[in-house]
Amino acid sequence: MTNPTGNTTGTEAAVHDRTIRDMFAGIAGVYDRMNGLLSLGQDASWRRNLARAIDDDARDLFDACCGTGELILTAKAMGKGTWHVAGDFCVPMLRAGVSDHGFSERAQVLAADTQRLPLADSSFDAAMVGFGLRNLAELDRGLAELFRVLRPGGQLLVLEFFRARRSWVQAPISFYLSNVVPRMGKVFGGDQSAYTYLPQSMGRFVTVPEFVQALEKAGFSQNSAVLPQSFGVAHLVVARKP
After folding, report:
1. Which of 103, 180, 201, 240 is most buried when burial is the number of CB atoms within 10 A of its CB?
2. Could you report the per-residue pLDDT of 77-103, keeping only the tens digit for each?
3. Strand 108-111 and strand 83-88: pairing?
């Protein structure tokens, strides 16, 4: 059944997860290149902005829904953390990160579902997610898991495309995502359907205020920072475990 976040539960959730895993497996080889192309080069600056927001004294970092690992490798390159762990449930994406970035030599890499993390409680000082929460079948379960693996006082840092609250804000973004992105995905990425999924997933996902409410429901503090990226195309949300 569909819940207010646009996520799913039960058998439908299992089907959703399998579909998403297969979709990302199909574009793993072009994923990083397409991200840079479709964001007009802004994705790298968004990752750096997230890395800057990580507490300077955070030592143990976890990247959930890590894809090819660009986010946690950016944090490491910027001197954040001393132990770097990353997980994704799409093994071909992890393999692409290993071959393209030497991922496994620079971080501990796990084949792991963010909704069911094989990690001990209170293991990390900071957890990050770059454009992955929107793909979870069960957002609340994923947030609960991220809360669980953080130490008291730890940070959750999320980069995401959220559903816009006002139609006039959403209109130009929707036009680009619905008309330009799928065509570019077909021409440069060889998969129009995967890049048609992006605007569809944004339209089903939560707004920023709804996401902040979901964070508070999961146990995070009520003073989350919301930082628009590129005039609100994306947002960086920084929450903290009490």
Report:
1. 103
2. 999 999 999 999 999 999 999 998 899
3. parallel
String of b and e for 178-193 (b: at least 16 CB within 10 Å)?
Answer: eeebbeebeeebebee
* Structural domains of the chain in order of their starting residue, each with its CATH number: 10-240 (3.40.50.150)
Q: Count Cα atoms within 13 angstroms, Cβ side, for 107.
A: 33
> Can you tell me the distance from the alpha carbon of 20 to that of 26, in angstroms, rounded to the nearest whole number?
10
Query: Roughly how many angstroms between the first and final C-alpha of the chain, as a whole number?
Result: 32
Burial class (CB in 10 A: 0-12, 13-18, 19+), 25: middle
CA 218/CA 34 separation, integer angstroms: 33
Which is nearest to 109 in space by CA: 126, 130, 92?
92
Those residues of the chain that have pLDDT short of 70 are 1-10, 31, 34-38, 165-196, 198-199, 202
Residue in 32, 17, 104, 19 with CA at minimum distance from that of residue 67 = 32
pLDDT in tens, 212-240: 999 999 999 999 999 999 988 899 999 99
Write down the pLDDT at residue 2: 35
With contact defined as beta carbons under 8 Å apart, do 69 and 97 qualify?
yes
Is 79 within 8 Å of 55 (Cβ atoms)? no
> Does residue 118 sit in helix, strand or coil?
coil
Contact partners, residue 188, CB within 8 Å, separation at least 6: 30, 33, 34, 37
Round to whole Å and give the CA distance between 222 and 242.
10
Instruction: Say how many C-beta atoms besides its own lie within 10 A of residue 167's C-beta.
Output: 8
Tell me how far apart the alpha carbons of residues 74 and 47 are, in angstroms, rounded to a whole number.
7
